[in-house]
Amino acid sequence: MAVTAPVREHSTDTARAEPPRSAGRRRARRRTYLWSYVYLAPMMVLLLVFVVYPIIASLGYTFYKWDGIGDPSDFVGLDNFRQIVHDSIFWRSLGHTFVYAAFVVPIQLVLALALALVLNNKKLRFASFYRTLFFLPVVTSAAVIGVVIQLLVSNFGDSINSVLLKLQVIDQHVDWLGDPHFALGIIILVGIWHTFGYNLVYFLAGLQTIPDELYEAARLDGAGRFATFRYITIPMLRAVGVVIVILAVIGTFQIFDLVQVLTSGGPFFATEVVNTYIYHLAFGGSNANAVQPDIGLASAASFVYGVLLIAFSVVQVVVLRSLAKRRAL
Amino acid sequence: MTRRRVVTAMTHVALLVSGLAWLYPLFWALGSSLKSDDDFFTDGLNPMPSHFLWANYLNAWREASFSRYFMNTILITLGTVVITLVVTSCAGYVLARTRFPGRGFCLGLVSATLFLPHGYTIIPVFDLMQRLHLLNSLWSVVIVQASGGVVFGTFLFMGYFMAVDRELEDAAQVDGANFHQTFARIMLPLSGPMLATVGLFTAITAWNSFFIPLVFTLGRPELRTLAIGMYAFIGENSTEWTLLCAGTVITLAPIILLFVLLQRFFVNGLAGAVKQ
């Protein structure tokens, strides 16, 4: 999160550092400003047109019933919002998104921190090779991983079934991705696997900022491993840890690819998350629950979700910061 | 010290075994891509094919349109990387080096958008592309993807250029270099590592992107990328398992190779971003 860094304000402009003395210098400065705008323009255009404008525009669509063809003309006021707030599937998909985050984030963070502590040992050879192994899923496409998992499940699902039946863990055949109880669990497992590497690298980066002298001093004081971890590693990781938690939570709330490929939100909306819910509203369902595209409704859902996310992020930042400040973590 | 050596050896064994097990789904897909349909079902969890059947790749490449998907993905990735690098290096440079009026406003706007949740604004972008008559073209995917990454790239370049010694530029200006020459001949060549970091980030994101190409190629199967092709294929011909595994390898291998070769830049970029 580069933004949280205070921008270092060097005195960067020579023209400002020493007041302009001649018209020539003023002209040169004006030329520099002009070219600065030219250099900045492409970035600002992309930002304003494709990031800022859509935020404002999507609010406009929420007042119309519109299937996305032609111009929106059927003004319905706040009906779309009313419909969303009363749609049980919206709340269920919000619930699934929270469940997904509630499982993925803690499990991932604990595992990643544990592995980072092992790999951070300077005497451990091949540490960067091991890091690469565990990081690799991050660079693979979630959609393609979804396809592979589908193939794996359809190939081994029956074998696992017969083993579990024999062990009497289950009493009937389970259709892993077609069963509402198991589908979300599989998505959670794959989700943990897929983005685990980010947290590993973040924790490693955080651990490397802890000066060796601290560990050395602790060792001389006769501190054991646990005491060192509790009184040096954890406090020193606090600042980076807050950023890691926030990034992990934001990441899990964006879940779409895996769900869309693995279950498309089914069976019977048992794995529908907010982003697939919005997609199905806006572009029609890809399976049995196909519906007429309803851009207005989808925009209203997007807007409600966006507001919830922003509110949640703000609360999260405030809570985590104050916890870190009070050294409660 | 033998006890320590045993512990070290056990750590290595544990890390190696768990690391390879971690990548099992990838090994399994790689092995299965070379199996016959019969072996695919009888081999169980064993990823090793009894004999190598390359025909799966030929079928995927020729008959299942993976050659076209591959070209589309290459074009989209290259286009996105080039646009992102040009746009963000220029913007990062002026934000780091000149104090033009309005700089504070621009910085504020850029920072604010970093905090907004992404992805939920696809509908207006879709509508915009429709009105610009760019819908159902690779350009729409390239532009939308590039615009999604400009803020992050601009910040990385800005931080990088701020750390460059000011005297280099002053010397160039004394020698009569103008604004563009200073940027193109002095600053840009210095930013090689950052070009690699932002370029690799963008390439991986663009190559793996699913949501944006899905939305913008809905009506045009011939514009599908590899990821969309795989998704569509499993919907249409979900029984051709081994062919899908070949498609998986075609999709994942290039980006994994690129990452392994350049991972230093990627990991350093991630680490730098979180440490700030």
TrEMBL record, chain A:
Out of the domains of life, which is the source? Answer: Bacteria
- Note the topology in the membrane: Multi-pass membrane protein
InterPro entries with a match to the protein in the record: ABC_transporter_permease, MetI-like, MetI-like_sf
User: CDD domains given for it?
Assistant: TM_PBP2
- Which stretches make up the ABC transmembrane type-1 domain? 94-316
Q: Does the keyword Kinase apply?
A: no
Quote the biased-composition stretches of kind Basic and acidic residues, using this chain's numbering: 7-19
Query: What cellular-component terms does GO give this entry?
Result: plasma membrane
What residue ranges are annotated as transmembrane?
34-56, 98-120, 132-153, 182-205, 235-256, 303-324
Region spans: Disordered? 1-24
The entry's localization annotation reads:
Cell membrane
* Principal place of residence: membrane
- What keywords are assigned to this protein? Cell membrane, Membrane, Transmembrane, Transmembrane helix, Transport
Pfam families linked: BPD_transp_1
The keyword Transmembrane appears for this protein: yes
GO biological process, alphabetically ordered: transmembrane transport
Annotated family: Belongs to the binding-protein-dependent transport system permease family.
Q: What is this protein called?
A: Sugar ABC transporter permease
Question: What species is this protein from?
Answer: Kribbella sindirgiensis
Automatic annotation (TrEMBL), chain B:
Native source organism of the sequence? Kribbella sindirgiensis
Q: Which UniProt keywords apply?
A: Cell membrane, Membrane, Transmembrane, Transmembrane helix, Transport
- The segment(s) forming the ABC transmembrane type-1 domain are 70-262
Please give the biological process terms from Gene Ontology that the record holds: transmembrane transport
Family note: Belongs to the binding-protein-dependent transport system permease family.
Record InterPro entries: MetI-like, MetI-like_sf
Q: What is its main location?
A: membrane
Q: Which PANTHER family match?
A: ABC TRANSPORTER PERMEASE PROTEIN MG189-RELATED-RELATED, SN-GLYCEROL-3-PHOSPHATE TRANSPORT SYSTEM PERMEASE PROTEIN UGPE
Electron transport among keywords: no
Q: Where in the cell is it found?
A: Cell membrane
Q: Name one Pfam family in it.
A: BPD_transp_1
Question: How does this protein lie in the membrane?
Answer: Multi-pass membrane protein
Q: Where are the transmembrane segments?
A: 12-31, 69-95, 107-126, 138-161, 195-216, 241-262
Would you tell me the Gene Ontology cellular component terms? plasma membrane
Name by which UniProt lists this protein: Carbohydrate ABC transporter permease
